[in-house]
Amino acid sequence: MLLEGKVAIVTGGTRGIGMAIVKTFLDNGASVVLTGSRQATVDKAMSELTAYGDRVMGLCPDLGDAAQVADLVDQAVKKYGKLDIMVNNAGISARDSLYDYAPEDFDKILDVNLKSVFNGCQAAARVMKPQGGGVILNTSSMVSLYGQPSGCGYPTTKFAVNGLTRSLARELGRDHIRVNAVAPGVTRTDMVAALPKDVVERISAPIPLGRVGEPEEVANAFLFLASDLASYVTGEVLSVDGAAMT
Fold first, then answer.
1. Known active-site residue 101
2. Are strands 177-184 and 237-240 parallel, antiparallel or unpaired?
3. Bridge-partner residues for 138, per DSSP?
4. What is the model's pTM?
């Protein structure tokens, strides 16, 4: 029970890596507020978590709206009394060529993948500082380190998340707030699970461990960084990618 008595928010917690983080935190004793982009997905996620009773709550804020993110944090504190861990996991991807990239689509990915992370960090830090500290965790990506051949908006936002993470670790350390990021590689989310076996094998071939990652393996990295086992770890971007690009 590495998170016994802790309170966490996990944005984008309705499926995939986000849901794995939610379940892992709950299994380790935390109470969790999860968010989703639509009420229907939040309701579906909550229906899968009934065994955890009152230790889990689902909400559907607009994470690009600073006021709504502040209200999200306020609701978590109102229900559970504090906020120990903020996981800024919500994000979207895109594969558009530069030649075809619509400015409004670039703006959207900036809002979801970067502005929402800033909003989450700011709202959480404002609560954590008077509490005496806390942990902020951001979801990055392996492409934040290496780029990708199309869809430049996605790696651009993840590069920025890394910079935000490292900068806030330096700024917030004096307030006893640790800030880290996890950079997953190819992971068996719904999208990967739906691919034909031969496609998955082709994706896995260059990975030294010979397979794609599982959401639970990524969630375990978040668990470590959220726990007191990582009490002297801050400003790190932890790759969980099977050494895919090394």
1. no
2. parallel
3. 88, 181
4. 0.95
